[in-house]
Amino acid sequence: MAFLLLVVASIIMAVSSVSVDAFQFQRQSKNWGSSRRRDVLITITTASPLVSLLTPKPVLAKDESMNYQAVWFDPKNPDGYRVLFGDDQRATLLLKDGLSDNEATLPVRVIKGEEGKETKLTFDFSKLGLPTDVEGTFTRNREKVRIISFDNGKNYWINKKFEGPIGVFKDSTNSKRVIIIRQVNNNRGSDCMVEFHDGGSIISFTATAGNTFTFNNFPDKGEVTATFNMFRRTLTFEDGTVWTKY
Length: 246
Known about the structure:
Layout: H1 2-16, E1 23-32, E2 35-44, E3 70-72, E4 81-86, E5 90-96, E6 104-111, E7 119-123, E8 134-140, E9 146-150, E10 155-158, E11 167-171, E12 174-183, E13 191-198, E14 201-208, E15 213-218, E16 222-229, E17 234-237, E18 242-245
Antiparallel strand pairs: 1-2, 3-4, 4-5, 5-6, 6-7, 7-8, 8-9, 9-10, 11-12, 11-18, 12-13, 13-14, 14-15, 15-16, 16-17, 17-18
């Protein structure tokens, strides 16, 4: 019995010491029509081999329907991004297809699914000369990865299962603030852009992923570091502030 307790204690200590080393970016080439496109796969390295023995589930926001808030990857536009954030009725889509394109801000209607049903998102793409009522379904694929499916699955946006601190967060010190962290440089490398959306105002600054997540020119603070916990999906700062990812 004593030996068994010792083994269990060792595993718990090992798991509790897990930290995110960094992003590792692996490029997988794909053909999209006549052009060669690149998909970006983001993996997390961990400090202990014992983690592979355990499979704890990430801690998500209580209401699954709100987890559409994320940075999405569109395989047809691998150099761009789609960011969704909002509530259970309306959302905002930030969309950019490539480096030479301007970011578009588009309205989205959210139809929250009842218990056991999927959430529907109706996109208004009229600013881009496209239809005003494009319907997407927020769900998960067989690997439990979040996706937004269009045209009965013919097209989709995907949210990688372990994309580290890339995503949309809520702030433990400001319930009205929306925090967005996304990669720059064509979705490659460790450089990131951080945005605070506080009602009508937006504050932007940069950050760098590494052994710790370093925020450059953090408002009123300068350089600030935080630790990302991939199981709890949180960024924790030295002053106790916690950002929780949807």
